[in-house]
Design goal:
Number of strands: 13
Structural class: alpha+beta
Number of domains: 3
Radius of gyration: 30 Å
CATH architecture of the largest domain: Orthogonal Bundle
CATH class of the largest domain: Mainly Alpha
Largest sheet: 6 strands, mixed
Length: 507
């Protein structure tokens, strides 16, 4: 019976074990994939086997080495498989799928932590000092992270654990700096932390997140990165300009009604369409659901007001004022949800944690700054909607206010608004989630473009005609019951009124 072999085996100074390894190689039970390293896996590529057993291999080849520099701070190899280890000597070792840079230096300190398979990992304070060394690597991955990235890591630590964590980090780094011969690196770290904590000038900082915190308006750097990805996509991907041709007050009121109905339905405030019509136009408030009814009425009061929906901000202070004032009207039926006031407690949806309360204003500021560089019209409307939805600045009503802000941007520019009907709800929410978790803007732009096209074709001559068209197009269906059809596909709606536009060249 053949013995069960581990996936990784190593050469040995023991004569018996050395003979066994040679016999296994000769009988093709194992193969050599790196110096002193063998595998019993005869199918997978060597790089795949190495990646799966990397730390086992490193621990055996370089016992008691310390994962250091950028590897320690990031907690993993770089994307190209580079690992930095502090060891007894300096050398570069290449094995399939990985490049190991051995750096001669101080081995394990008391604060360094045991890692996997006989390795150690540098303490956090040691890793920060190491990443502030001057690095002049050419043609390969540098051992240190960029200065902006180090600052962002410090900002993130402060965001999660508070200012005390930065002070504790600085105190521990001060103790070990002489042991490592990194007094100059400590001075750099001390300056960074002092600037972030506003005890030193912020001019030494290069990271936007760190500078924002230093100026008293900290932001969520990950969300700002997501905004940047959406910005880049919207700048480079032209979207149509669908002009609004329905000018009759009755048509605009009907459009605002359906906008209010569907915007609330997405958030779980579900009424039959006839019930909602009676709430808005006949004042019939259901005795058992007065707050739900006021959600629809509050939304309608905003989106049916031509003057209000024609307003867009020209400065960040105006943006905040509009956001809060509109939210107050939408949520005034729920005083316990703090209408018009930013949240004081964290909120989440499923596994998505939204921006922390103390980072709301700074993150909105960064997003607003980007939004002003997005083309007016549909691109900026999509950006504004995602900005508000992603920050989730209020305790409740964030989706409704996000879509109201989006449609105000469209109305101001004389363009058709966007209704997101029930049947499109999952596509819409999944597109937001894909943008949040994967930074994938294409789906969000496509869904909103299609929703605007649908709204543009919707006939609004009468409530009955619009409702019949919405029914025939499956707009009232649940997402698992049908797919949205365009009114023009069944001859129900007008031909779309679209003016193709091109984005200006990138700066």
């Amino acid at each position: 019976m053949q013995e069960n072999l581990p996936e990784i085996l190593f050469a040995s100074a023991d004569k018996a074990e050395s003979k066994r390894i040679s016999r296994l190689v000769h009988t093709k039970r194992i193969r050599k994939i790196a110096p002193r390293v063998y595998t019993s896996n005869l199918q997978d590529e060597p790089a795949v086997v190495v990646a799966r057993n990397l730390y086992l291999i490193l621990g055996r080849l370089f016992p008691c080495a310390v994962l250091s520099h950028r590897t320690a701070l990031q907690g993993k190899p770089t994307a190209d498989g580079t690992v930095f280890l502090t060891y007894k000597y300096s050398r570069t070792v290449r094995i399939p799928g990985a490049t190991i840079h051995l750096l001669q230096g101080q081995q394990r300190l008391e604060d360094d932590h045991p890692f996997l398979d006989g390795l150690f990992i540098a303490s956090r304070h040691r890793a920060y000092l190491e990443n502030l060394q001057l690095s002049r690597t050419r043609g390969s991955t540098p051992k240190t992270l960029p200065k902006a990235t180090v600052e962002e890591c410090l900002d993130r630590l402060c965001q999660i654990q508070g200012e005390r964590a930065l002070n504790d980090l600085r105190d521990k780094a001060r103790i070990i700096a002489p042991v490592l011969g990194m007094e100059k690196e400590f001075q750099r770290l001390n300056g960074m932390i002092g600037a972030i904590l506003r005890s030193r000038p912020a001019t030494i900082l290069v990271s936007g997140a760190a500078r924002a915190r230093a100026h008293g308006m900290p932001c969520d750097a990950e969300r700002v990165n997501a905004f940047s990805r959406l910005f880049a996509h919207l700048r480079q991907s032209p979207l149509p300009a669908r002009t609004e041709t329905r000018r009759a007050p009755a048509e605009n009121r009907l459009l605002a009604f359906f906008e209010s109905y569907f915007s609330n339905y997405i958030e779980g405030t579900e009424f039959e369409i006839g019930e909602a019509y009676d709430i808005v136009f006949k004042g019939k408030i259901p005795a058992r659901r007065p707050q739900d009814a006021h959600d629809i009425l509050g939304t309608y009061r905003i989106v049916s007001n031509p003057e209000e929906m024609g307003k867009v901000p020209s400065a960040f202070d105006e943006f905040l004022a509009l956001l809060k004032a509109r939210h107050h009207v939408i949520m005034e039926g729920r005083p316990e949800k703090l209408p018009g006031e930013f949240k004081t407690d964290p909120n989440r949806a499923g596994q998505t944690h939204f921006v922390a309360p103390e980072l709301v204003q700074g993150t909105l500021a960064k997003g607003y700054e980007l939004s002003m560089a997005v083309d007016p019209g549909l691109p900026r409307a999509i950006f504004i909607m995602f900005l508000v939805a992603e920050v989730h600045p209020f305790t409740d009503g964030n989706g409704r206010i996000a879509r109201a802000m989006m449609n105000a941007e469209l109305t101001h520019n004389g363009l058709c608004r966007i209704i997101v009907p029930t049947v499109l709800r999952d596509d819409y929410l999944l597109a937001l989630r894909a943008m949040t978790r994967k930074g994938a803007p294409e789906t969000l732009a496509r869904v909103m473009d299609f929703a605007q096209q649908f709204t543009n074709e919707l006939p609004l001559g009468s409530y009955e005609a619009a409702t019949q068209c919405l029914t025939e197009c499956h707009a009232f269906d649940e997402p698992d019951e049908g797919r949205l059809r365009l009114p023009s596909a069944s001859g129900r709606g007008p031909a779309p009124n679209v003016l193709p536009v091109k984005n200006p060249p990138l700066p």
